[in-house]
Amino acid sequence: MAWFRRSKVSIQQEAQKKDIPDGMWNKCDRCGEIIHRKQLEEQSFTCAKCGHHFRIGAAEYIALLLDPGTFREIDRKMRSSDPLNFTDTKPYKQRIKESIKKTGLFDAVRIGTGKIGSVPVVVSAMDFSFIGGSMGSVVGEKVARASERALKSRIPLIVISSSGGARMMEGAISLMQLAKTSARLAQLAEARVPYISILTDPTTGGVTASFAMLGDINIAEPGALIGFAGPRVIKQTIGRDLPQGFQRAEFQQEHGFVDMVVDRKEMREKLIILLKYLWIHKK
Question: Does any domain span residue 8?
């Protein structure tokens, strides 16, 4: 008879772990820290361990920067048509419909009026989640209308950029938005109406080549990628290794393309100081 007998009771497995609801925890892309959603919100969507700035949408920026309850959206339901009847992996019309359903937005920017530190402002906030924050006819038109509203009301304009560049599904129409937005901002400058540009990660392509870099004051978030073509494309073109930190916010500030780099947790207070100075100076 075997001296060892298997117990009839099977090995007890560890208690099954409870499922964690989607979106409750976030992992930092830089240091790997696991952060609870509530803690992340309290830290203005930045990592408390390493300071990494998470990408956030237009709604989050509006909530972080504007006085509570003051934002009034303009032209919310404006949406792109399909002038070229464009199709790549899917029809452009279908891509737009899917993006609207997924994000709850009608395009990659929200514009409106509000107050920051009781100073009235016009705000334009881009959202990377809508087709990579690409600039098509609607983004260009909305930014232009925001500029016109600021000019008419003679109150500061603030644009928060987050974009992969021009929306090439609209071809040359998307490229014409560079000229249109730049022309509107030139009118704003001639009228001496303040324009503050906030560049977040990423701000690239046609958006960088137009309104994002035309601010009277250009402010970037720490570590934000800011440039026209991507680092890999540039490296392949010139055939040389790029400097450390190339196209990051700190590099751009060092070389004069950005006026200041401001932590997101301090952004609202910095804007209040700048706006109140500009508002008093304007009067």
Answer: no
Asked whether residue 18 is assigned to any structural domain, the reply reads no
pLDDT, tens digit only, all 283 positions of the chain? 555 565 555 555 554 444 545 678 999 999 999 999 999 999 999 999 999 999 999 999 999 999 999 999 999 999 999 989 999 999 999 999 999 999 999 999 999 999 999 999 999 999 999 999 999 999 999 999 999 999 999 999 999 999 999 999 999 999 999 999 999 999 999 999 999 999 999 999 999 999 999 999 999 999 999 999 888 889 899 999 889 889 999 999 999 999 999 999 999 999 999 999 987 666 5
Matching residue, tokens 């009118």: 187
31 in a structural domain: yes
Helix/strand/coil percent split, the chain, to 5? 40, 20, 40
Same-domain status, 29 and 168: no
Q: What is the domain count for the chain?
A: 2
Indicate left, alpha or beta for 265 from its phi (over 0: left) and psi (-120 to 50: alpha): alpha
- The single-letter DSSP state of residue 225 is B
Residues 106 and 42 in one domain: no
What does pTM read for this prediction?
0.90
The parent domain of residue 27 ranges over 23-54
Q: Provide the 3-class DSSP secondary structure of residue 117.
A: coil
